[in-house]
Automatic annotation (TrEMBL):
Broad enzyme group: hydrolase
GO molecular function: cysteine-type endopeptidase activity
UniProt GO BP: meiotic chromosome separation; proteolysis
Classification of source organism: Eukaryota, Fungi, Fungi incertae sedis, Blastocladiomycota, Blastocladiomycetes
Keywords (A to Z) from UniProt: Chromosome partition, Hydrolase
GO cellular component terms listed in the entry, alphabetical order: cytoplasm; mitotic spindle; mitotic spindle pole body; nucleus
Domain Peptidase C50, first and last residues per copy: 166-262
Organism: Catenaria anguillulae PL171
Protein name: separase
Enzyme nomenclature, EC number: 3.4.22.49
Catalytic activity: All bonds known to be hydrolyzed by this endopeptidase have arginine in P1 and an acidic residue in P4. P6 is often occupied by an acidic residue or by a hydroxy-amino-acid residue, the phosphorylation of which enhances cleavage
Length: 417
């Protein structure tokens, strides 16, 4: 498990360190400022209150090694060990780092600096079928999966070169023609976005599919499985380019199967070389619940607006309606979510008080109790896709059967408006 987060205190740490090193640069060939890897500094600062003397000692050894490599005078056991000649001693550097960590931690606490963390899971073939994202310690947090550490490194490098535009979407809804209710729920939503391209109720040819998928930033598939019937996955893998984000919302679209003793394989792996992020379901799901999840995820991420997700007419839902017996039509789902969950410009704000809003089929029963847990949570305006998936689980009526099925492969992705 790897936890990564961006620390706003990085610049302050580097500034203080170079102020400490400034007197030691006189009369040497050392550069103007010591250069340190940004990821290393972020990792040190992410230790927070858990930092120990052993951690500070490790950081001191690393910084001292960088000083020596970049031309700074470093005291050695055989030379000026006390640093009287202007060289840097281990003890003085360690004392400075310990004070700096303590000072920055106190400052960040007093100023309430929010750090958006993301958890990356690297699972073997025995652990990947389990929905770790819905366990108590990870529920509601931004979590994704990668297949290896090398894949994570490649994705982080590719992220700097790719921009995901919300206008560049290719959709394929109900290509088999047998999910008419699902098609009705999403057809108005996709048609409300004039720049989106795609098909609803029919399947494109393989040539059309590959052409549109490779030229779009986002691929939205709503149908059976992961869209393997549209194009053999191996053709997607061999294609030169693919979507930055693939949303595969059919049954078992994110499932990986292990052939004997070999590593598992599945549809997400065929998109992985070209995509920063792939969303899929670990097992089979029911259509109405996963449709609720999809609308909530797209709205929370900011891909669709609350207005485009709502029907034009008012839909009356009785205050005392029984969620077990009430059959809510597809377009009513978005309005019911809006009654209990507010989506505003990509921001997902849950009711401030337990029981506030109408009890509906979209958010009710066990899901409402989950919502109370995050009722006071204030989320940033920009929500990454992994966080949007975590938030959207709350609208599922079957919290674990359907809500825990969607998982994210890849890294956090933000939309560019």
């Amino acid at each position: 498990m790897i936890v990564a987060g961006e620390q706003p205190a990085r610049g302050e740490f580097v500034r203080r360190l170079n102020e400490f090193l400034a007197p030691h640069r006189k009369g040497t060939q050392a550069p103007r400022d010591l250069e340190l890897p940004a990821l290393m500094v972020d990792a040190w600062l992410a230790l927070g209150r858990t930092v120990t003397d052993a951690d500070v000692e490790d950081v001191t050894y690393f910084v001292l090694g960088e000083c020596l490599r970049q031309g700074y005078p470093v005291a050695t056991a055989g030379g000026a060990a006390n640093g009287t000649d202007g060289s840097i001693t281990f003890d003085s550097l360690m004392l400075f780092l310990a004070k700096t960590f303590k000072s920055l931690l106190a400052k960040s606490t007093s100023e309430s600096i929010a750090v958006q963390d993301h958890t990356v899971l690297i699972l073997d073939k025995y652990a990947h079928p389990f929905p770790w994202e819905s366990t108590g310690s990870l529920a509601g947090k931004s979590v994704s999966r990668v297949f290896s550490l090398a894949m994570l490194t490649d994705l982080l490098a590719a992220q700097r070169k790719r921009v995901v535009h919300k206008e560049s979407v290719y959709y394929c809804i109900n290509p088999g023609g047998d999910l008419s209710a699902t098609q009705d729920r999403f057809e108005e939503i996709v048609r409300a976005n004039a720049t989106w391209r795609g098909t609803a109720g029919s399947a494109p040819s393989q040539t059309q599919f590959l052409s549109h998928v490779s030229s779009s930033d986002i691929f939205l598939f709503i149908g059976h499985n992961g869209g393997e019937q549209l194009c053999p996955p191996k053709r997607i893998l061999s294609h030169s380019y693919g979507p930055a984000v693939a949303l595969l919302l059919g049954c078992s679209s994110g499932k990986l199967s292990a052939p004997g003793e070999f590593d598992p394989i599945g549809t997400p792996m065929y998109y992985a070389p070209h995509s920063l992020c792939v969303v899929g379901n670990l097992w089979d799901v029911t259509d109405r619940d996963i449709d609720r999840f999809t609308v909530a995820m797209l709205a929370s991420w900011g891909l669709i607006s609350c207005e485009s997700a709502l029907p034009t007419g008012d839909v009356a839902v009785p205050e005392s309606s029984d969620t077990k017996d009430t059959a809510i039509a597809g377009q009513e789902v978005a309005r019911n979510m809006a009654a209990d969950v507010s989506f505003t410009q990509g921001r997902h704000v849950l009711p401030l008080k337990a029981g506030q809003g109408r009890r509906t089929d979209a958010v009710g029963g066990e899901s409402r109790r989950i919502a109370r847990t995050y009722a006071s949570t204030s989320l940033p305006d920009a929500v990454d896709l992994s966080k949007a998936v975590a938030q959207a689980r709350l609208v599922c009526k079957l919290r674990y059967l359907n809500g825990a099925a969607p998982v994210v492969y890849g890294i956090p992705v933000y939309l560019t408006h």
